[in-house]
Batch of 3 targets.
Target 1
Amino acid sequence: NMGYQDGRDRWMEVQCEKNGVMPPGRIGHTVVVNDKGIVYLWGGVNENLERGSKYLDDFYRYNFEKKEWEQVELKPAGRPEEKPCGRAFHSAVMHDGCMLIFGGCNGRGRFHDIFSINGETGVCKLIAAKGEVPSTRYCHSAVVHDGKMIIFGGKCGGRNSNKRLADMYAFDFAKGEWSIIEVTGDVPSSRSAHTAVVYFNKMLMFGGRDADGKCCEDLYEFCFTTSEWRRTNHGACNQLFMRARHSVVVHNDRLITFAGWNGKKKLNDMFQYCLDSQTFQTVHDSDENDPRLPCRRECHTSVVVGNTMLLFGGRFRGLFMNDICEFGLDVMSLKDFCRAYVVEHAQYIDWTDTKKYGLPEDLITYLDMYNMRGLSWKQRQEVEKKRQEAKALRAANLLF
């Protein structure tokens, strides 16, 4: 099983000034990774006392293997307005080899347009979107599932406003069309500066700031097949989720969270949440005196390249950072690999057949947990009920 008891020693700051190119420090930027492991960075904001806020429209490529940045000039596909203006706190996803930018804000206003940027050529274009177009927003979340970009929440007022959203929209890439997602269940409160990630057929969302500006301490699961929200309760461990402006990645069935702001102070802690067993592990606590750790920060980004989590940027005590730090993630364990193989070949291997395979009950449960990873809460309950009935039947057969 994945264990990060030595988590502090897994961090490494990357020296990547070989060719003299380094993006300026920033917050509210977006970073994505293509299928070849090339990292793309666009936008954000930084500021100083002389000129105030500067909203950025620069685009960079980062070669993970060579540890080198390269700035790429953006070229509009047609009209000049097809090049996005500088902005921050937008969202970005990868689709069809391009970085897709949605929403965001700058000193002049808020946005709800979609731009695509070809990371190889630098060609950018405005995507014509029809249908039920979402309102302007920033500090929202965006994920990709089944050919659609799914956005949730965000902020819709000014910088000092507490106007936040709890709506959900889907943009169909093939149709170029927006639609509202009608949801049921434990619908989350309105929020911004939260995070959302996809795990098989579910979206996991947590944290952020609510309509009162307080940090949320809840974890929600959204099932794409049923459009149902469910809030999960983990007792005292919910305190770990109480943060905003943090970063989250998913790797080998683990949700890994780093840093952010908890309403009182900036953080540089890390914890992991195992998505099948629903258990927690603290990787390391916040500690600004440990030179092995990246400094406390908020509004940074983290992405996964292979078996490495890549951290870039953020802000702490007025400093807008442009550092890159790597955190070494575990490769899939032999136990998890064997489990995935057995589950994916379920049509040939019925692991619940104790007469044929003789697996112990705890191993059957372990396989069942992984098999149910993409199901909704209600579907998992139904499967669990059938499993318990089968267990009782097996026990009854042993009596005769």
Note: The chain has a mean pLDDT of 89.
Target 2
Amino acid sequence: MESNTNTWAFINAPTSGITSTTSSTAALVKKSSIRQQDNETPKSFIVGQKLKVSRSYNAIKPLPAMPQQQVSTQNASALQMNSHKPPRRVGLGVIGCGRIGQVHSKSISEMHNAELIMVSDPFEDSGRKVAATYHTEFSPDWKTLVHDPRIQGVVIGSPTPFHAEQILECCKAGKDIFCEKPISTNLDVIDECLKAVEKAGVRLLVGFQRRFDSNFKHIHDEIAKGAIGQVRMFQIVSRDPAPPPQEYLEKSGGIFLDMASHDFDMARFVTGAEIEEVYVCGAAFDPEARGAKDLDSVIMTLKMSNGAFGTIQNSRRCAMGYDQRIEVFGSQGIISGNNKTPDTVVVSNSKGVTSGLPYSFFMDRYEGAYTGAMRAFAEVIHDNKAPLVTGADGRAPIVAAMAASISARENRPVKLSEIEAKLLVHN
């Protein structure tokens, strides 16, 4: 889980565990009472009104128009070249003004090829504050945002139970979609959403931000270029600084969905293959996980469709900070990515050699990755590109998480095909 103990109020967590039981989308997207932020809004802000920075310009009188017959072909060509037309800016809207919604709003406001048209949140205090901060419009009704003709792409940063309903509404409106993970904790609902996306002809980018991190992206790109030859083994380490409260864990869907889903995605990303089998060894050492009947420390062995295999280590507690490392072994070499730190200072003296600890908060560690993900979404629309993280990429870690859950419970390797077969029988 990419969070820490001090920020649980801002986390949009699933309200149910992993399940493949058929249920209506409406039931899964019932109104949530999660309050995302309690910040006061400047009293001068008016709901629905766009705030603009006041600027003063000196009026410039245009030159007298040149008679048409006096403009030579050469001059006309020069005039055409000098009249530079600014690039089209993509209109984006953000649903959800909690922690992640604020991050995405900030990223959009700083882009040259995108404009933040509107933000939406049922809690007007937090919504108005974000709108005022980034000089945009606010609506408490997310459907108003989705159907606004100025908006080409919708960023869904609301709590998980709302995701499916909002994706389906975006499909009806013909809007491209960025959705935070997970799309849903229910495979039937995920499949319904993916079918709707395909039928509507819109594009969906799922927010696995680690793919846009400079370390992990570089590793992926080097492997794709053949830098280490055939991928044979990998090790992924992901440990949080401190465990969340028991109340959070009880609603999180468990360690495999809440935390390991990023690592399942990373295994697919760096190997270029699908996960075929998962085997889990784990325990609950801390009272938070024990109280929630969850695990807080796991090692998973993964077998991939291309013959490669590797391990994922997850822990809810790590004394040194946010531990995010990876190593991939190939037939012609090894590539690895180490922890990032706030600075790269190394002190060497008679007492030893010391350096700083890793980041202690996932938002700091992956700040650049979140910006990269939002930039990629804007480019999908602006440049008419295919998404770098598709709906299928969003679905695969959910299947892996379900297999891992069974493996931990039954102490056996579980093939992902077993999960898919059960889904087919059920339907």
Note: Confidence is low (pLDDT under 50) at residues 3-86.
Target 3
Amino acid sequence: MAHPTAFLLCPAVGVRTTSSLAAYTANPVRPSNPAYARPVSRATHVIAMVFGKGKDGDRSKNESSFGRDDNPYRLLGVPIDCTYEQVEKVLVKLKEQYKDNLEKISFFEEQKDKIFADKLKRRMSGSISPKIKESPYEKKPKPKRKFVMPEWAKKIYKKPEMAQAQKSGILMLLYLVGSVLAPTMTSSSLAMGFVTSAAFLYNRGLPEPVKDEYGNAGEIQPVKNWVLLRTLAIIGLVSLLSFGTAQAIIMFVPLPMWVMPDTFVNTILLTAQWVASICFYTQDI
């Protein structure tokens, strides 16, 4: 039995070969000729091998051998690197435009067949190469996009320093333990935590003060008003957000019986203030 694409290589078939192939792909009913008794996907594959698939189609290496007056590409108004779908789309429009002129329709059909034959001839000579659509299973995984911190966030964020984190963390822990042991000191511990975190945040990045032989500071630096304002704004905003978060958790999440609501809120607030004092930066912004 002959190969299913052997009819494409026979020069004696001529124009009728391409017409039969077009009819075969357009009509799902198989012809009675056993030479064509193949699935429609095989014919579609042949078209893909000749015309190529994709948005841009195949780019030809050589120009067509047709003259100016008998150039089927020019007569149909399609580029020389057109795809099968482009030719069919133009042909449908022309048939609709000249639906009452059978001679014109037959002429356009003939130009379409010439284009197909020219594509096949150049494909077999190696002047154009097929373009097969890439399988989705063979696509390379796209690299994951890394998070890029905005410029304004880079100015107010600084990597925590171990020494400062330990000093401020010990004080915050003492405030928390005091509020647990003495619930009446909850408000006082929150106020002291606010002042302590603001002080550590303000002094972050400043040089150590010069001290005398007795450990006293020799010179007191003047207060920078804008730095102090930024420091208080950051600590205040963090305190408000953490307080709202703690209240929402208490409202929607049932806490264990041994956890007091005031102690829980105090823990969330002091922890947030401590994190803000070691992560943010307000000097020289």
Note: The CA atoms of residues 178 and 185 lie 7 Å apart.
